Amino acid sequence: MAVGVFDSGLGGLTVFDAATKRLPDVPFVYYGDNAHAPYGVRDAQDVFELTEQAVNRLWDHGCNLVILACNTASAAALRRLQEAGVPEGKRVLGVFVPLIEALTEREWGDNSPPREVAVRDVALFATPATVASRAFQRELAFRAIGVDVEAQACGGVVDAIEDGDMILAEALVRSHVDALKRKMPNPEAAILGCTHYPLMENIFQDALGGDVKVFSQANLVADSLADYLERRPEMRGPDVEPVMLTTGDPQRVSDKATQFLRRKIEFIAA
Ligand code: DGL
Prior knowledge:
The protein has helices at 12-22, 44-60, 71-84, 96-104, 128-133, 135-143, 157-162, 166-183, 201-208, 217-231, 250-261, and strands at 2-7, 28-32, 63-68, 91-93, 115-116, 121-126, 144-145, 148-153, 189-192, 213-216, 243-246, 267-269. By secondary structure, it is an alpha/beta fold. Residues 7-9, 11, 37-40, 70-72, 127, 130, 158, 194-196 line the site of D-glutamic acid.
């Protein structure tokens, strides 16, 4: 048994990194579908099929719990996967809920009716597919009222990060923040609704200005996972060697991952 972490590519490493630091004794199996990234420009059916395939591979690797560390997959596939039914004793969780709980300052599992929260004007930065799904707004509406969300589809940012072109990624982030500010000049908070974006968090913060509170998922998801495993210890296990799997070129992906996390990361072919 182990905890599986899935992303279309390198973005889930931000969640993986925070989770391994928060839970050093938990073995993680990472699956990056780098050969098919980016997901954010694919249609929902395509994202569902790729996600289902990856999750099945993680079940085969002995994971009982799989975290979709990808908002695009969480938006397009999570509900369908859960409704179709996962194998006995297995669970698949997404990354929206911990973020929304932090934004709305609600306790994990608080099922009370939606209520007013401290923030009103919220900027959401995400992939085109996540923005089109409106999944974030739907989840938010279960928990909060009176929040105005302005979404910006950040085309190109994931491709630039996957290619290691951080100069292009920075230019794109700045232009997407400008575009958002034309629609919502003074957001109080900003959500980085793609797990690749924490790699550019300083640029988002700089472009938005110091007054804007930026929420990004890595630590929030790691904390939620720690809380979940405390309540459901059977979902973790010591029996599997941690491994990093990619559908892309293992050497290239290992180099990029090592560069991003500033520690040696070795991928093998999925
Ligand atoms: N990291 C994925 C997400 O959180 C994204 C990306 C993609 O492949 O477009 O949405």
